[in-house]
Amino acid sequence: MGISEEEIISRYLAPLARQNPEALGLRDDAAWLRPKSGHDLVISCDTLIAGVHFGADDPADLIAGKALAVNISDLVAKAATPVAYLLSLALPKAPDAAWMSGFAAGLKQAGRSYGCRLLGGDTTRIGGPLTITITAIGELPTGTMVRRSTAKAGDKIVVSGQIGEAAMGLLVRQQSAQTKRWGLSPAALAQFERAYLAPQPRLPLVPLLRRYATAAMDVSDGLIGDLAKLLSASGMGGVIRLDAVPFSDAARQIIAADPGQIERLVTGGDDYEILATIPAKAVEAYRREAAAFGVDVTEIGEIGAADNGLQVLGPDDKPVTFKTASFQHF
Amino acid sequence: MGISEEEIISRYLAPLARQNPEALGLRDDAAWLRPKSGHDLVISCDTLIAGVHFGADDPADLIAGKALAVNISDLVAKAATPVAYLLSLALPKAPDAAWMSGFAAGLKQAGRSYGCRLLGGDTTRIGGPLTITITAIGELPTGTMVRRSTAKAGDKIVVSGQIGEAAMGLLVRQQSAQTKRWGLSPAALAQFERAYLAPQPRLPLVPLLRRYATAAMDVSDGLIGDLAKLLSASGMGGVIRLDAVPFSDAARQIIAADPGQIERLVTGGDDYEILATIPAKAVEAYRREAAAFGVDVTEIGEIGAADNGLQVLGPDDKPVTFKTASFQHF
Question: From first to last of its 330 residues, what are the pLDDT tens digits of chain A?
Fold first, then answer.
């Protein structure tokens, strides 16, 4: 027996909003928000659909956590501190109590760890896959938002974490026969799956991006394609070296067994790492301060003139090209 | 041949955001918003799904207009002035140019008439029905939001416009055989369909609600059920008279032919009229000032003690009950 719409809100979601009066118990037409004086808001809105962005059978708490994480990642990339979010939940059928309680628990935990509160939203029934839209709201001192379009010639191109982990996680989940040939350890398989199911937005980078980055974005549709978008938005070109891109030991093991997989690693989606451009003289400070927060950042290349576009150099210094630079829905 | 994701954004949606720098050309991870000092934001998020909230074959410009209208209606009910919105568009397939251009035109016109600008959003592909989520943002002087939960004993219950028009419009579109028996004129049929396809949020009421209303909400899931929600949120009861509910001449013609249809009129969804509670001594001023803006408002009852719940009185002064008070997704 499924849970009613009324129960979804009153029993599972309203408790998440109990401590913030602006949510009005999720029982009003809208929520209110009193912006902090001297601050701008930064707002992002992303939809996640079962079968596209997550699996319909993934654990409910991880689905909820990922939906919030990918939106928070957009705020982080803009150097905004998360403050609140709205959730629209379109469910194919009335959920059962176990699923709904897992979903609410995942949302609660994610909201706590990102410091952002549930303001409101909507619950509907869809004749299609589970569809989750989150609107995330962050704040930052007036005029300090970091954009995609402001990279400068000579800036270093820097990326956080390790690239391609989530793309491998998706492959492990969908085509385990293929990944078996690589002889990966159970720990490596779990690490890839975790990256896909439970991405971690890089919150510690918020103040550092504000201080050091000339431009930034989060890597959600593949490193190469997303970097190309940043360059295009900035009207610049750039060069990166494939052998500088940070990969995990497990990913390196795959590359050793099957060198062609490097394309999947650098063009596959769902990294939610932060790609930033940093003036050369500030790179060391950015790297050191990020490391102090437990986030590794790696210099992978440099911004150059627009006419050369994005050049990706292989280990032999020759340009490498890829079939599909990044994920497109259609 | 369908349009690519890149083209949807750059060619059809970005032009709507050209004049507002916060949207960053819809080419960044997020948008920014600089709140007006001394003001609160009011935020609403509603999802509309083909087959539930509109027909998949409805004209694209009307689909877009309705998606924005129903969200703006929530802001109006809170006495907020619309300022901006985000759009998440989940499309079952790559749209053709005619559909996409109609959709963008409808959005543009609606945005202009409500004075709110496109800030950002998301475009995805869905293995299901067309799904549109809009997050609408309004503003009002700090602390002046009108809630659902603050109706007071003795307040008059007042509703704008005419009730049940959209519910009849849906019936006309879905079961024309049934509506033929009522001998409605083509003009009446068109009026009902228009109410369903192109709801008009009551923007002129924003300053009046701020001045006069003790509580308000928009009627989206049926007058009776929504009023019951307002009473419950306020911890109050109330009495309304069915013969005081404002119906159009065409709706009255249906009631005359088939008295049972009154239930559809007062419990059917999609009215997007404003239900408000107004202190008795202010009702006349509210009515007169609304009329000056071209909006009729009608007193239909009064707030009373909680223990009596919602009483709906028929023409014979006897209480009337309905099978389903309002729309529930599940």
Answer: 688 988 999 999 999 998 899 999 999 999 999 989 999 999 999 999 999 999 999 999 999 999 999 999 999 999 999 999 999 999 999 999 999 999 999 999 999 999 999 999 999 999 999 999 999 999 999 999 999 999 999 999 999 999 999 999 999 999 888 888 898 999 999 999 999 999 999 999 999 999 999 999 999 999 999 999 999 999 999 999 999 999 999 999 999 999 999 999 999 999 999 999 999 999 999 999 999 999 999 999 999 998 889 999 998 999 998 877 665 666
Following DSSP, what letter does each residue of B196-227 receive, concatenated? Answer: HHS----GGGHHHHHHH-SEEEEE-S-HHHHH
**Candidates A28, A96, A137, partner chain B, best to mutate (most B CBs within 10 A):** A28
Bridge partners (DSSP) listed for residue B219: B273
Residues B126, A128: C-beta atoms closer than 8 Å? yes
The distance of A92 to chain B (nearest Cα, Å) reads 10
Fold of A5-141: 60s Ribosomal Protein L30; Chain: A; (3.30.1330)
All residues at 6 or more sequence positions from A268 whose CB lies less than 8 Å from its CB, including other chains: A164, A166, A167, A168, A170, A222, A327
- Residue matched to tokens 């009011």: B42
- A156-313 carries CATH number 3.90.650.10: yes
Q: Is B102 on the interface with A (CB under 8 A)?
A: no
Q: Backbone phi, then psi, for B222, in 5-degree steps?
A: 110, 135
How many residues does the structure list for chain A?
A: 330
> What are the residue ranges spanned by the domains of chain A?
5-141, 156-313
A229–B28 C-beta distance less than 8 A: no
Measured in angstroms, the CA of A223 and the nearest CA of chain B are apart by 15
From the list A5, A27, A119, the residue facing B330 with the nearest CB is A5
**Nearest CB neighbour to B88, from listed A47, A91, A147:** A47
DSSP string, A155-207: PEEEEES-SSHHHHHHHHHH-HHHHHTTT--HHHHHHHHHHHHS----GGGHH
- Which distant-in-sequence residues (6+ apart) come within 8 Å of B128 by Cβ? A49, A126, A127, A128, A129, A131, B90, B92
| A280 in B contact zone (CB under 8 Å) | no
Confirm if A13 and A118 have CB atoms less than 8 A apart.
yes
CA distance A63 to chain B (A): 17
**Residue B53 to chain A, least CA–CA distance (Å):** 10
Q: How many CB pairs under 8 A join A and B?
A: 222
Question: How many whole angstroms separate alpha carbon A54 and alpha carbon A109?
Answer: 19
Distance between CA atoms of residues A3 and A94, nearest Å:
6
Beta carbons within 10 angstroms of residue B1's beta carbon: 6
Structure ipTM? 0.93
CB B237 within 8 A of CB B304: yes
- Three-state DSSP at A229 gives helix
Rounded distance, CA A13 to CA A26, Å?
A: 8
